[in-house]
Amino acid sequence: MNLITWNIQSCRGCDGRVDPKRIIDVCRGMADFDVLCFQEVARNYPELPGSSGEDQFALLGSLLPGYSAHAGIAIDVLGADGRRSQFGNLILTRYPVIQLFAHLLPWPAEPAVPSMQRVALEAVLAAPFGPVRVTTTHLEYYSEMQRRQQVNRLRELHAEAFEHRKDRNHAQKEGGPFETRPRPASAILTADFNFRADDPLRTRITAPYADGTPAYRDAWQLRHGERPHDHTIGVYDRVQWPESYACDFIFVTEDFAGRVEDVAVNLDTDASDHQPVLLRLKD
């Protein structure tokens, strides 16, 4: 299983050009991917730099026949032209999607800083080695308080999935919306987390659970040990980001630790202000 996570900055490269095809071409050059997890995907936002208001969710999906596209909309507002303007995350996958969840994350008011609604998009995939939950999100940049609450909510959602796994044989009505579908504890969590590798919030994500929920492990550390994370932002765009650092991570549940074959940051592309990250899992 090859998975790539990437904050694509509304498909805008460091040259200022919006080019969805370039995004897909970079991913194809990295691996024969099974899953793409994109953050910062836009629809009808002509005010974004370089954009004409194109539907990036549809354009990215159209470039990958044989893959299904699943949007997690965080921002959904009435645009100036009367159409919906939407912004959020996107999962594209060649695996069957057993079920899908779009979890709005906490957004407590903090008037002193700009912020926006965030969403965690969770897809239960029928992978070759069995069902696995893949969640991708994009946490708040300006507010540490909001980011902390969003991390806590991600932990709660993971514990909730474990409870559903334990209770999967509870009473249900078959053949309708009450029918229980797989929502396994085995999981992959990807995001632009907007915190650095040494932030306590990264440690918070990997903290153990008291109820037996399998903890998340940092896939980079599983593969590379104590080697510092390769930087994923500010590598090429020094206008927005005078300093480069790592803020895009992949976590896997501890039962998947032995499946991690490689984690690699593409340091060659400037197709976004972030660098894409590849996770390879053994079957």
Can you tell me the CATH class? Alpha Beta
The count of helical stretches stands at: 5
What name does CATH use for the topology?
Deoxyribonuclease I, Chain A
| CATH architect. name | 4-Layer Sandwich
| Tally of discrete structural domains | 1
Could you give a short account of the major beta sheet? 6 strands, mixed
Strand-residue proportion? 25-35%
Helical proportion? Answer: 10-25%
Radius of gyration: 18 Å
Which shape, going by the Cα principal axes?
A: globular
pLDDT averaged over residues: 96
The class by helix and strand makeup works out as alpha+beta
Quote the distance from N terminus to C terminus. Answer: 7 Å
Q: What are the low-pLDDT stretches, counting only 5+ consecutive residues below 50?
A: none
- How many strands in all? 12
SSE diagram, text form:
Layout: E1 2-7, H1 20-30, E2 35-43, H2 56-62, E3 68-78, E4 84-93, E5 97-104, E6 119-127, E7 130-138, H3 144-166, E8 187-192, H4 200-205, E9 216-218, H5 219-224, E10 248-253, E11 260-265, E12 277-281
Parallel strand pairs: 1-2, 7-8
Antiparallel strand pairs: 1-12, 2-4, 3-4, 5-6, 6-7, 8-10, 9-10, 11-12
What does this structure look like?
This protein is α+β, with helices and mostly antiparallel strands. The chain has a single domain (2-281), classed as Deoxyribonuclease I, Chain A. The protein is 19% helix and 31% strand. The protein has 5 helices and 12 strands. The strands form 2 sheets. Strands 3-4-2-1-12-11 form a 6-stranded mixed β-sheet. A 6-stranded mixed β-sheet has the order 5-6-7-8-10-9. Strand 7 (130-138), helix 3 and strand 8 (187-192) form a beta-alpha-beta unit. The model has no long low-confidence stretch (mean pLDDT 96).
